[in-house]
Specification:
Keywords: ATP-binding, DNA damage, DNA recombination, DNA repair, DNA-binding, Helicase, Hydrolase, Isomerase, Metal-binding, Nucleotide-binding, Zinc
Protein name: DNA helicase RecQ
CATH topology of the largest domain: Rossmann fold
Family: Belongs to the helicase family. RecQ subfamily.
Helix content: 40-55%
Number of helices: 34
CATH class of the largest domain: Alpha Beta
CATH architecture of the largest domain: 3-Layer(aba) Sandwich
Mean pLDDT: 90
Pfam families: DEAD, Helicase_C, HRDC, HTH_40, RecQ_Zn_bind, RQC
Number of strands: 17
Strand order of the largest sheet: 3-4-2-5-6-1-7
Number of domains: 4
Low-confidence stretches: none
Structural class: alpha/beta
Radius of gyration: 32 Å
Catalytic activity: Couples ATP hydrolysis with the unwinding of duplex DNA by translocating in the 3'-5' direction
Length: 715
């Protein structure tokens, strides 16, 4: 019998409720309709096609460009009890044949397939021989030339709708502007398909922009402040990834680099090690990430500024996919923006495409230089208006204070004038700070009146203030003259004292950190300490089990599930099934190890009169029972009423613990008691007195309690 969508969600994914839009999308697809789903990374796109796949007869075909990810996706589905497989160019002919045989036998519900395999010779005939119930096009923005990750092999996907007009199709993506999404639907042959657009807001992600100086020092400090957290540092150049990873390793930090020029075997090894938590920090180019199904990445850093908001949003979206709090950081300097601009200008793109790239880069710059809520800027790019600030970006947390910067502005503008307006920002900072480096002295800039006039400001402060002056129109930049700074009418008004300059006060990472420490919340409560300690112990259990089973840790349980365990501290199977993300399959495989760890921790922390888990008193009784003590001896040892001990043993039996309850009553006694209970329609947890009186006091209360425990389980 086919299950409902709610039953599937609980049985195979361990959740009680759908996320926003998921239920509506599933109903639409299950009714046989085409659609496009736009959801942020970590928003639950996969559930939108995996649940319909299990609701209907037949097999769902998932087309994905991410060959490296297929294995992990399929492994995760199988771990949840869902029959799935993948087909791509990495498999042998024998492996592919075995999977095709499974498909024909109706043994699979989902088949992941790479586009190049889909359109290989004979593949379409194979697909026609199957009972396809749905086509799911993952990363569908790859279809469009307007998308930021165009894949030529995706352009043939329109063949599917032509060949299978009655099979519903869902296109899924995390990032697509309006031009891209229209093109995707047209290319797929479903131009009239309904578009479901979830909010692109990821409230669990903290958004931060850091000055683009002393980057390595800041990275080291951040990692040291966040021990045991998994993170990715994105860099523009391959060489940069290698250099940063090496510097971090020299400081004792578990970091590796990743880029497209690494041998395939090494790339695969590094990626697997990161997935398995054997590597803590990945320093990578954008070649890394799309093939990563790792929900517990706690932070993303951009060492260099991305060229557009789509790429940036998709990359930061790889943090916190489990819904837990995570950090994103972008290092930014005006030089980063100029470098990106030069790259576009020197490319061989047609001018109209260059103009589009320039416009997208400017939107990225707007985000980086924001003096108001960054999340509002990010969401506005995706045409999503919000009416309040987020409270979880650096600008919201630390509202910018402005100051009268007329004097430093005059010093900078004067230096530009005295160098004949042929000086770029980096050299201007050297002049203002009185640096005697070769670039300064060879040009004679050490002899101008304003040389060293700005020594009171650090280089990073000058870089920030000069960028603000450019953005506010106090001066200009000539991109075609080696980025020389130029004076304009506003510049001369400032120099003549006719106009004031207001700038946002600069604050370094160290200064922000110090201030945050001073204003931080008080020391953790005892409850928070227990939760965090237990979470770390559970994380180690998960790592041990993942190594033993040769699968990534998050495939056992996500950080969110471990966090819920640490918060609720379940000590039996019934309690464990109430944990978010828990399913029967995983409970059977791994539940006991986590319950034992929680119990072990509880025993080590329990003091007389205090217990840190609900039901610990039952566990203390069970510990003594396992040592061979009788109920009478346990009652004496624990200073309890003997009936209370019997009640403990009955409850333990109900919760699935091994307790030989039949030693406390005979089969005849059980039959008599339960017949009376049935007559009285006794319900679980009901008072025992009516039953005791019905039986005219023939049986002691403890026998009634034990009999009802057995009866309840048998029913």
């Amino acid at each position: 019998m086919l299950l409902s969508k709610e039953q599937i969600l609980k049985q195979y994914f361990g959740y009680d409720t759908f996320r926003p839009l998921q239920s509506e999308i599933i109903d639409w697809i299950a009714a046989g309709n085409d659609c496009m789903v736009l959801m942020p990374t970590g928003g639950g796109k996969s559930v939108c096609f995996q649940v319909p796949a299990l609701m209907k007869e037949g097999i769902t075909l998932v087309i994905s460009p991410l060959i490296a990810l297929m294995k992990d996706q399929v492994q995760a589905l199988r771990a949840n009890g869902i029959e799935a497989a993948f087909l791509n160019s990495t498999q042998s002919t024998a492996e592919q044949y075995a999977i095709e045989k499974q498909c024909h036998a109706g043994e699979l519900k989902l088949l992941y397939i790479a586009p190049e395999k889909l359109f290989a010779s004979g593949s379409l005939d194979f697909i026609r021989s199957l009972k396809i119930n749905l086509f799911a096009i993952d990363e569908s923005h790859c279809v469009s030339v307007w998308g930021h990750d165009f894949r030529p092999e995706y352009t043939q996907l329109h063949i599917l709708k032509a060949a299978f007009p009655d099979v519903p199709m869902v296109a899924l993506t995390a990032t697509a502007d309006r031009v891209t999404r229209r093109d995707v639907l047209k290319q797929l042959g479903i131009p009239e398909a309904r578009v479901f657009e979830a909010s692109f807001d990821r409230p669990n992600l903290s958004l931060n922009v850091l000055p683009g100086r002393n980057r390595i020092k800041v990275i080291e400090q951040f990692i040291n402040d966040h021990p045991n957290q998994s993170g990715i540092i994105y860099c523009l150049a391959r060489k940069t990834t290698e250099d940063i990873a090496q510097k971090l390793r020299a400081k004792g930090i578990n970091a590796r680099h990743y880029h497209a020029k690494l041998p395939a075997e090494e790339r695969s090894k590094v990626q697997d090690d990161f997935l398995r938590d054997d590597i803590q920090i990945m320093v990578a180019t954008i070649a890394f990430g799309m093939g990563i199904d790792k929900s517990n990445v706690r932070w993303i850093m951009h060492y260099n500024m991305p060229s557009n908001v789509e790429s940036f949003y998709q990359e930061i979206g790889r943090a916190g996919r489990d819904g837990l709090k995570s950090d994103t950081m972008l290092f930014y300097s005006f030089a980063d923006w100029m470098m990106r601009r030069d790259m576009i200008a020197s490319s061989e793109l047609p001018q109209h495409l260059k103009d589009i790239q320039f416009a997208k880069l400017d939107r990225m710059k707007q985000y980086a230089e924001a003096d108001h809520c960054r999340r509002r800027i990010l969401l506005s790019y995706f045409n999503e208006a919000v009416d309040r600030d987020c409270g979880n970006c650096d600008v919201c947390r630390n509202p910018r204070s402005k100051f009268d910067a007329t004097l430093p502005a005059q010093k900078a503008l004067s230096a530009i004038a005295r160098t004949d307006q042929r000086i770029a920002m980096g050299l201007l900072i050297d002049v203002l700070r009185g640096s005697h480096n070769r670039n300064v002295t060879e040009r004679g800039y050490d002899r101008i009146k304003t040389f060293g006039a700005g020594r009171e400001l650090r280089a990073e402060e000058w870089a920030d203030y000069l960028t603000q002056m450019l953005n506010s129109g106090v001066m200009d930049v000539a991109y075609d003259e080696a980025h020389s700074l130029k004076l304009n009418e506003t510049s001369w008004q400032v120099l003549r004292g006719e106009r004031k300059v207001q700038l946002v006060r600069f604050e370094s990472y160290e200064e922000k950190r110090k201030r945050q420490e001073e204003t931080a919340e008080p020391v953790k409560t005892k409850k928070e300490v227990i939760r965090d300690e237990l979470f770390e112990r559970l994380r180690k259990v998960r790592k041990r089990l993942s190594d033993e089973n040769n699968i990534p840790p998050t495939m056992i349980f996500s950080d969110a599930t471990l966090s819920d365990m640490a918060e609720k501290r379940p000590i039996n199977r019934i309690q464990m099934l109430q944990i978010s993300g828990m399913i029967q399959t995983k409970l059977a495989h791994y539940g006991e190890a986590f319950i034992n760890e929680i119990l072990e921790y509880a025993r080590s922390k329990t003091q007389p009169g205090t217990r840190i888990v609900n039901g610990m008193t039952y566990i203390e009784t069970h510990d003594l029972y396992k040592q061979g003590l009788t109920p009478s001896q346990i009652a004496q040892r624990r200073n309890l009423n003997e009936l209370t001990v019997y009640s403990h043993l009955a409850k333990l039996y109900e919760d699935g613990y091994e307790v030989d309850v039949w030693q406390y009553l005979t089969k005849n006694e059980y039959r008599t008691i339960t017949e009376a209970a049935d007559l009285l329609q006794v319900t679980p947890g009901a008072a025992l007195k009516p039953l005791f009186e019905q039986l005219e006091g023939q049986y002691e209360y403890y026998k009634l309690r034990i009999a009802l425990a057995i009866w309840g389980k048998e029913k």
